[in-house]
Structure formats: C-alpha cells, structure tokens
C-alpha cells in the first residue's frame, strides 16, 4: 500500500486505482466526446446499414468505446472473426431500445431498466476540466467496460429530463433513409421531427406528388374502360 500526502499527513492510497487512472491519460491532446457527440454517434450506429457499411459501424464503435473523436477514416472491416455479426447483434438490441423511447410506449424507463442498470454497473466516469482565468469548465469522460454499456450510457442521456435529448428522438420518414436523429430546431418555428434533412423532405414530397399523379392517371384510365350507358330516348 502506497501513501499520498494530503494536508501534510500521510494517507493510505490505492496503487491499483492510481495505476489504472494513469493509463487513461495516454492521449491528452485528443478531442473528447461531448454528451451530444455520444448521442449522435450512437444514433449514427443505429442507422448504419449492416453488413454493407461495417466500416462506418466500427468507426462509431471505436469512438463510443474510447470516448474520443476520430478525425481520420478507418479502413473497412474484414468480414471474418465474427466482428460484423457482433456489431449487428448490438445494433438490433440498441434499435429495440430506441423504438421503445421514440414511440413513447407506456413506462418506457421500466422497459429498458435492465439495460440501464446493467450499463451503469459497467461504466467508469472520470471528470476532466479546463481551467480558465476566472472559471473551471468540468466535463466527464465515459469508460464503458463493453459496447452494450456504452450504448446504455446513451440511453441514460436520452431519458434524462435534465438534458436536452429527452423527447427529441426521431426517425426519418423518407423510405430510403429511416435514420435516427434528434429533432432539428430551426431559427424560427417548430422543430422538424419527420425528416432528417431538407433534401429528404423535398425528395419525399416529390415522391408523394409523383404517386398522386400516377394515381390520378390510373383512375382516368379505369374510367375510360368503363362502359357508358346510353340515355333512353
């Protein structure tokens, strides 16, 4: 047992904890993830089309597990060793949790409570701070023991009423997209919750217009095929 001085008195320390925390400082210059980063990365992971975009899914995984932002792209994942299958399983579980929250099912927290408790027991939160001239900005970095714990941490953020994510989980209605996103708040007006981008909104409207035109023309063709009744003389 080592000792550490506090206020001039030798107090027993915990060398195992000190050694573990020291290993977490391997890259002090990296960009730490904010809570918004955690949520958006997890939603990106939930929206990835696996196994086709396995490289992108692994990129999300790596950032959520390390708590740092990757600026350089990762190469595509090799298919063997079951990594892609494991990512697919994790995605399926996470999507099922997101759907409970998004659809605002009765007692959503009770339905994901097991995942929350399990994640909470396998996460280490370490504070970090940036000292300015007159203030200190404190943030926390999440160290999950496994990927389900990392995704469970995002669930906590989505369900916490003190944070800006609760009630803002959406899924794009554009058929070719259907990605998860947080409600987009414009400068004025109500937040957009139906489409993840203005491009997908425009494409959906164009598709609806084309479908209405096709339906109208089909009705005209059907009417033209119907026999006409002659009026009695």
What is the percent of helical residues? 40-55%
Number of helices: 8
Measure the end-to-end span. 114 Å
* Mean pLDDT over the full residue set: 81
- Order of strands in the sheet with the most strands? 1-2
Short description:
The chain has 233 residues and is an alpha+beta fold.
What would your notes on this structure say?
The structure is a single chain. Helix content is about 45%, strand content about 15%. The chain has about 230 residues and is an alpha+beta fold. It folds into two domains: about 10-165, no CATH class; about 170-225, no CATH class. The strands form three sheets. The protein has a two-stranded antiparallel sheet with strand order 1-2. Helix 2 runs antiparallel to helix 3 (about 55-65), helix 2 packs across helix 7 and helix 6 crosses helix 7. The radius of gyration is 26 Å and the shape is elongated. The protein starts with a strand and ends in an 8-residue tail after the last helix. Residues about 1-5 have low confidence and may be disordered.
Spell out the blueprint of helices and strands.
Elements: E1 3-6, E2 9-12, H1 15-23, H2 35-47, H3 54-66, H4 83-102, H5 108-111, H6 113-120, E3 123-131, E4 136-144, H7 147-159, E5 169-171, E6 180-182, H8 198-225
Antiparallel strand pairs: 1-2, 3-4, 5-6
